[in-house]
Amino acid sequence: xxxxxxTVVAVDEVEELAVDGLRWxxxxxxxxxxxxLAWSRKxxxxxxxxxxxxxxxxxVPVLLEAWRHFGxxxxxxxxxxxxxxxxxxxxxxxxxxxxxxxxxxxxxxxxLHEELGDAGAGAAADRALHLVRSRFDGTRWGELFELMxxxxxxxxxxxxxxxxxxxxxxxxxxxxxxxxxxxGVHWPHRTGIEARxxxxxxxxxxxxxxxxxxxEATGRPDLVELALAGAADVVSRDEAGPEGFLVRHxxxxxxxxxxxxxxxxxxxxxxxxxxxxxLLRDITADPAWSALADRCWHTVTHSxxxxxxxxxxxxxxxxCCGTAGVLALACDRIAEQRAQGRPQEPYDFxxxxxxxxxxxxxxxxxxxxWSNVEHRDTPSDLEPxxxxxxxxxxxxxxxxxxxxxxxxxxPRYAFAWPDQPPAHARDASRR
Length: 431
Prior knowledge:
Blueprint: H1 11-27, E1 30-31, E2 37-38, H2 56-70, H3 73-89, H4 102-116, H5 119-134, H6 151-160, H7 164-171, H8 173-177, E3 179-180, E4 185-186, E5 196-197, H9 204-218, H10 221-236, E6 250-251, H11 270-284, H12 287-301, H13 323-339, H14 345-360, E7 362-364, E8 367-369, H15 392-406
Antiparallel strand pairs: 1-2, 3-4, 5-6, 7-8
Helix pairs in contact: 1-15, 2-3, 2-4, 2-15, 3-4, 3-5, 4-5, 4-6, 6-7, 6-9, 7-9, 9-10, 9-11, 11-12, 13-14, 13-15
């Protein structure tokens, strides 16, 4: 590892940090007319944001996580109050996608129905999915055509929200829109763009995850085979073998003025690539995918993160693009290797990540929160965000899981994120 040796943060101290993060998050909520709770992307924003990525839908999972972790019903009560605002938002959401729109809201509402018995949440989820289906044009829902804002995410969300027919409807267009490459296939991530993106959030691997998971769950081997062809294209682009794995953001380079050619996080780098490879491992039982996930981990741990080596290299603490997303992968590896009786090498790096998050937390009487960096602005420290993608919800969720693992507890989440495979006791290569 090239990351600095960490000062080990005691598990109890990490838990206290998570509690402070939850306190700030709950204080940032706004009460709605019906007594519900809603969050904006950041406290200074005027409008509530219902989305899974930036707003209320993405905050509910950490409330459920805290409820299960602490056994404190106040967190479940907050989740139910958030349910009111989410149900009220269903008809007015302009976007239908998983991360930015109605499908993500539907998935969280379905979870609240199943976990907390809220019948109104179940009815609102049904209404949301009906609206999503009604807005399909036969190929897509809008400009985006990938995991976060397009078909792949809608397929995943619909599947997990209990609508496999909608899930298949969402991902079948990839069969006729795939573009052949020398090693496999890929897709445009949006209309009118020459660049082809490769990773999980907006690129080929995100589509691979949607195709593979929906295909396996619905008995559609053609969808799984197409997923494997997409993964083969990405694997062919590796520039770091044989020990590592590193693929450029896009080909040709997309928005070079603002986007780095190489990244290491969940969104456009090996931390996310490894999650796609873990899923293919579980579906195919092919040990080659385990090896690729290991190579991704090697690259991540030798990249220098979470040090801020230079502007634009590593300036985000969050789950999507930063340290919390790498911590999620580290904890997946801890859980699987522990179950297999293997050495817990990922635990050391997880401590590096947690120590960095602890050192960068802003803590005061209001609680704890994290500021990301925009190097092009002065001042460069951004206002802390609330949600899953860039804010407290995504960070606190991973800190709580780290605490449970540190105490030998359950590695499972209260809410399983659609594109993060669960940690299994056995590696597929040992089946």
